[in-house]
Amino acid sequence: MPRVRTRTILVTAAVAALSTAASAPVPKSLPRGVSPVLYELAVPAGSEPTPEKVALGEKLFNDKRISVNDKVSCATCHDPDKGFVDHKPLAEGVAAPAKRTQRNSPTVLNAMFNAVQFWDGRAPSLEEQAKLPILNPIEMGQKSSDDVVNKLRGIAEYRTAFQQVFGHELTYDDVAGAIAAFERTQYAGDAPFDRFVAGDEKAIDDSARRGWGLFNGKGRCNNCHAFSTVSPLFSDQKFHNIGIAAHKTDFIGLARKATAIVRGGDLKQIDELAIQTDLSELGRFLVTKSSNDIGAFKTPGLRNIAITSPYMHDGSFATLWDVMDHYNKGGVPNPNLDGGMQRLGLTEAEIDDMVSFMASLTSAKFAAFGKQEMARQQAKKTVRPERDTAVATGKKGDLGDLAPTPDAAKPAAFGVLVRKGTSYD
Ligand code: HEC
Ligand code: HEC
To answer: What is the pTM of this model?
Structure first.
């Protein structure tokens, strides 16, 4: 089998090349489903999570005193016992209930492997990410990094701990460094699916096995939620407009508004626009200002997806059945809809199989919670706000693949969304 051997050699060579580059040593006991190759890429030398740094980071992660009013910690929105999310559609910080953020809290599990952080990728690292919510006016509300440093220096236990771990008086960079070290121990693997891939065919049931086939076949999910044993994250780490924000947004109007007010490359301003304003729906566009990125968001990984509802950047889908209904009809039409979005024509039984597959991605330590969450979602299965069977099966609609009987008199009508107010309508 020459092809397989070449591949093995290539992967071995890649690993060898990586281990000569400056990267932290890979822990001996990574759970199944966590890639040592990715670990080396994700953890640069000098930022390895030493036990002392991790313990300090975990304490900070759970400490409400980091916020301006002692009421909100990272864990408020990323609860470690609940899959590191808050299970609210939109996250709520120090300004709640008067003001909520515009975005859904993603999980911190496996965030260490993200090429970039946040739904729009505006932060390049875990360290830069951690510095933003602390200073965001409606998340943790601190006015400046100096305020945070002064407050923490005033707490004796932190004064001592930072001195011990970093060898100097605490700085804002150290706060972010310690939190990031803790996050670099929060990987997600060890799911029934991982035993299945490793050769235990019985590790997932028939329905989940069929779902895995559909995920890579008729469902086309692997176009974006790519899986390989080297990169087992179920994400291509890219940005796509799949029509989530299209429910409620005039993209063109918003993009005009954003172009007028976004100052070049100012991360703090982009953070506030994304978290606090209706420009949030522009997604990646706020970062790149490229019209291709209007309404595009990062493809999230799917591990532990059963325990991190509600879904999407705006938390607008309550269940995995809603997610499936959205994809089945080819997303919601808008001028920037990703070309990878097409109607799928999945039957109800196929949708159930794909949900079963996604439920097999729950890590062992959340198994009980995963079962409970799936039972809760199952009970809501009869409420299907996103379902549009006529569009999903090609009986209606003009997006996705060609409808069964194309209208020969109007060939341009297929696959092109004509907006009112353009020269085409
Ligand atoms: C008020 C709720 C809230 C608080 C407090 C909060 N976060 Fe978040 N977190 C969010 C939301 C919402 C997002 C997504 C925002 C976006 O993409 O624009 C997010 C994104 C992230 C991400 C990126 C994950 C990904 O997949 O891109 C990480 C990592 C993270 N938060 C860690 C932290 C840490 C560490 C803290 C404490 C310093 C913290 N968060 C405080 C709500 C919160
Ligand atoms: C064209 C790329 C693309 C394809 C194809 C695709 N996805 Fe996604 N998926 C995304 C992006 C991007 C998001 C986030 C979108 C947003 O929030 O606006 C997402 C979000 C999700 C979420 C919600 C994750 C969360 O944490 O909230 C689930 C679940 C999901 N996809 C499953 C699937 C399944 C199942 C399929 C196949 C039927 C599929 N996706 C096909 C790109 C894609």
So the answer is: 0.91
